[in-house]
């Protein structure tokens, strides 16, 4: 029997969960975010999502940023991020949604999504790991094997940037949905996508979603955003997660300095070992999922 939460997640492709941060954690994470955002905006943290570039590699063509990459990187020196990423209430939800055990949890990405400062920006309609030109059969196949990871956004401030099409994690696009998602251009009106829904998260709320659900996002430079954006895998999925995760450049996670930064966090170290193992087993250049 699956839980109610898991049943809803399976049906909709997303589920909103409150209360995965205590108010102290929220304060602590807001303060840590302020510091890393300042560093990024001052040009002192190179691992960022650059305005003008929707998907990796993000490059460096614009000084404005819409995200800070690699929050657990020892170079940022902010232990609050790894502490929260490996915290038990969060793991409990992930295990429920992935139907797996503690010893299956694989550490993956942990980034921060922020408002750009000088320009509004947006992401086109996409599925994170299915190419926009995929045929109906390719789409069906890709969606059919996407059960070994879960992604989430945790808002530290009110956030209504993300739009999704509920249920679209299970079915190939309709011809009309394809028209809205084959283009490299972000939508001028996200509501024009059939079945779309704008998600609003209150501070402290988390949306867990299947990252191959059809989704897009709009970023208003006048509205503060600091939303924790992460995913976690089930090691039983083998290398199915490889491209989605490794295209973000995770060499630093294999280095000793990161392992050392997890001293005292045996669970985090074990989760990291599973990622490194998976990486070792995936052969060759994984490439990038999407263009744009
Ligand atoms: O800004 C968001 O909430 C979504 C980001 C996203 O879809 C992506 O990075 O692929
Ligand atoms: Fe995405």
UniProtKB/TrEMBL annotation:
Pfam families, A to Z: PhyH
Superkingdom of source: Eukaryota
Positions of region (Disordered): 171-192
Gene3D superfamilies on file: q2cbj1_9rhob like domain
Protein name (record): Phytanoyl-CoA dioxygenase
Species the sequence originates in: Tricholomella constricta
């Amino acid at each position: 029997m699956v839980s109610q939460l898991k049943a809803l997640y399976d049906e909709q492709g997303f589920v909103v969960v409150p209360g995965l941060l205590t108010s102290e954690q929220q304060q602590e994470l807001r303060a840590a975010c302020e510091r890393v955002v300042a560093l990024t905006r001052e040009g002192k943290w190179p691992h960022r999502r650059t305005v003008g570039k929707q998907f990796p590699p993000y490059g460096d063509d614009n000084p404005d940023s819409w995200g800070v990459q690699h929050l657990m990187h020892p170079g940022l020196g902010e232990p609050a991020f790894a502490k929260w990423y490996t915290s038990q209430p969060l793991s409990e939800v992930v295990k429920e949604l992935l139907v797996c055990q503690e010893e299956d949890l694989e550490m993956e990405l942990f980034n921060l999504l922020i408002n750009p400062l000088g320009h509004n920006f947006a992401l086109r309609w996409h599925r994170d790991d299915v190419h926009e030109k995929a045929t109906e059969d390719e789409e069906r196949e890709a969606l059919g094997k996407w059960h070994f990871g879960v992604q989430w956004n945790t808002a530290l401030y009110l956030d209504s940037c993300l739009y999704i099409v509920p249920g679209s994690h299970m079915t190939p696009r309709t011809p009309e949905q394809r028209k809205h998602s084959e283009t490299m251009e972000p939508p001028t009106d996200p509501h024009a996508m059939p079945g779309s829904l704008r998600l609003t998260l209150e501070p402290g709320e988390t949306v867990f979603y299947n990252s191959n659900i059809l989704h897009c996002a709009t970023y208003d430079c006048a509205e503060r955003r600091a939303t924790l954006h992460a995913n976690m895998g089930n090691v039983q999925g083998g290398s199915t997660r490889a491209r989605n995760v490794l295209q973000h450049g995770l060499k630093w996670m294999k280095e000793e300095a990161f392992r050392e930064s997890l001293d005292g966090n045996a669970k985090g170290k074990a989760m990291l070992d599973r990622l490194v193992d998976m990486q070792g087993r995936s052969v060759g250049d994984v490439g990038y999922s999407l263009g744009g």
